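Below sits the subject:

***
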Amino acid sequence: MNGLTVNVVATESPARSAPLPSWNAFEEALASALSVLADESLVVSARVGNRFVQFNACPDEGVFCESVSNAYLDPAEKLDDGQLAALLSLGWSAPTHAPNSSSPASTPKGSPNFFREFPTPYSCSEIARLAVRTLTDILRIPSPDDLEYKAFDDSGHGVTLPVLPIDPAPAPPPRAKVPPKRRGPTEFAKLRAKVLAAARSGSGLGSLTYEDGVLQVPIGSRPGWIRPFEDPFYVRVHVQLLGNVHADEKFLAQMHEVNSRLPMVRVIYRGGSVFLGVDFPAVPFRPEHLTQAVTAIAQLADAVLKDIRAPGDEAAATVVN
């Protein structure tokens, strides 16, 4: 609010009827409430309808005050020409922004409501007097008993002002808690379950279960592994053929030559071991595809092992059975 200016209007203020004693007490209480606002906002409104005055306080800069414009009033509540003129006579500035603009509006300064700025140092008594005259003479609130308030900080947290002799506006009813939807198994979980069922059926191992995401099953004369993957969904079946292998260029060339002849499976070298494996897509998963993969590896393992073991390597490499 740096550089705030007070709008000075030369027009004579409308005659004010003598306020009720309750309004005098309310004016004093409102001044006290404004004096304790720190980067907080206060809205004083009619219990019925939408007539209000509001205050946005920043003690280091000033107080931005607003009075409701016709843009926010129902037809039965709209201000007539005399009321609109009276607002200007009290020093309020006419609305400058469209009704869907923020309030108070940012640069250029203004508001979709009638507004007035009180820069620091400001008089809380003067602001309270303006508010009460607006509520009584223009918005025609019969008594403070017809008012309620809400106050909140910059984060929207409610603020209680016990000094005000009016009730806080009732909080909106809490939204009914909707019980969270029970989430069914994920697509990957469904795939894992299907692979497990097919592996149990094919191996005859009814107690087979995943260990670290892998199923260990016999494939031919060797232990084998079955593992489903996601992103994309596929299933890998493999067995280890050799361990403790030093893969020189000659050995890797042999692997490449064998792979060029294999119909489905692939020879893989990793971490000093040689594996024979096959990947097949699992969308959709078919149990017969798993059976075919296991059968192919079991039938080809011995022949592939013979092809990739070069003369002289037998002593170094370990055959996995």
In short: Residues 287-308 form the longest helix (22 residues). The chain has a mean pLDDT of 85. The first strand starts at residue 40 and ends at 46.
